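Hi again,

Forgot to attach this to my earlier email, sorry! This is the prediction with adenosine-5'-triphosphate bound. I've pasted everything inline since the attachment limit keeps bouncing my files.
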Amino acid sequence: MVSDFLEAVEEAFLIKTGALDQITDAIITVDNEDRLIYLNKAAAEQYAIDKNKALGLKLKVLYRQLWFTPDAEQEAALSLKEKGYYQGTNVHVRPKGQKAVIESVVTVLKDKSGNKVGLMSIMRDITDRVNVADWLVESNQRLNYAIEASGMMIYEIDPKTNKINIIRGLEELLGYSPEEVQYSVGWWINQILPEDVPKAKEQFYPTKNVNNIVNEYHIHHKKGNYIVVRGIAKIIKDTTGKRVRIIGGMQNITQYKEMQAKLEEYAKNLEGLVEEKTKQLTNAQVKLEEYAKNLEKLVEERTMQLQHKERLATIGQIAGMVGHDIRNPLHAIVNELYFAKQTMTQVPENKNKQDTLESISIIQEQVDYISKIVTDLQDYAKTLKPEIKEVDLPELIASSFSIIKVPENIVLTVNIEDHLKMRTDPTFIRRTLTNLVNNAIQAMPKGGKLTITASQKENQTTITVEDTGKGIPEEIKPKLFTPLFTTKSKGQGFGLAVTKRLIEALGGTISFESEAGKGTIFFIKFSPKTKR
Ligand SMILES: Nc1ncnc2c1ncn2[C@@H]1O[C@H](COP(=O)(O)OP(=O)(O)OP(=O)(O)O)[C@@H](O)[C@H]1O
Ligand SMILES: [Mg+2]
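Structure tokens for the complex follow:
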């Protein structure tokens, strides 16, 4: 029976011609005992069987586990029994261990009288197809995911009808639901900001012979505003190069544009800021240079002042010594003059006597002057040590005037509260008053008013010496207390310098107000803190 069958098969499938070996599907036939009676080249290769050795061997014993799982085998057996064939897809394990997805069709072979003589299996390896299908599904999923994630609106245009079909993302991008938009490209062009229409049109009716068109334009949002989108259009062509479809996308880049603008502005501001800071720095540098220059000048000035002070100190020292040396001969001269005057009283009156007395008087005046210079110099040079005692100011001032001669053309007014007392060194006050009064008198060669006042208020004692003389010109006011500063031909310029030292040694202050041509007033003040 089997040989009958083989004959039939040989004839039917042109085994002899080897036609079945050209087929890539594996073809295997078995007899009713499951013995292998035919396999084509593809089967031998796929299942790594030597065709000649395999024939006659029991297929199940050899390959059962490679073909079907027990469930699949049961299913196949049932199907063969009931329908005379089995069709299914199963995972086969290849001899080397790799898995293959096999689509198999098993049919019952019958002889001429209709008896089952065996089975024939045609097995197609669809592993690659399955893999490709899986890959396609996966890649499609990935693509969809990417499109979703981009938030793009995707559309396609049929160039034949110019109808636009929105695939996704309409509401997300423009706020419209699908029913609210029209499907003519013209409607879409109307949604675009007029000045952007020319370039946006390229997306919908491409004129250039390109595959991709990318540009940015403004499109109307349902809310009424325009948004900026980046449009991408891809022209799909058939094999003849004819446009069959345009696939396009629109992505909202409004925020990106705003950020970009902000960034640009920020960069510009930064530039301004840097410029401003640079300017400030430059200014600071200029100021610093100026300051350095001033500092230089200041140092120079201070050095000069120091040198001046040093010089004055040296002058002071020498003056003290000279004064000391002059004082003794001066005393001798004064004594001699006294005796000479005494002697002259015994000389009878005559012209010579008169002349000699006049000479003696002039010498005495000059000696007084020398004596004053010596005293001033010494006062300026020596360390001052005031001897403080309770002093009656009216008395002290009156005693000062006993040694100052006030010319007749000057009216003296002394204005002091009775019994005004203070603790001070009376000799210092007397020397001060002498200097100030002398200056006042010297300022009023043509006469005037000299006013002395002394008062106490809230424990502050103030003494003033006021004249109606020529006053002090503005330009010399700052130099007034400087030693050796004088505007007088016979002046030493020591009077006020000495006075200041004396007052400061007593803890007081001296100041003045003066107006050229009107007069001058000097203030001496002892405040409670400095009062002794
Ligand atoms: N009451 C005043 N009115 C106008 N000028 C004054 C008066 N007191 C001082 N001066 C000015 O101040 C200068 C300095 O006075 P200061 O008493 O120190 O020196 P002096 O009077 O010139 O000389 P010395 O007092 O040594 O004889 C004077 O030369 C004078 O120009
Ligand atoms: Mg003077």
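Residues 266-376 form one domain. Residues 30 and 36 are 5 Å apart (CA to CA).

That should be everything now.

G.
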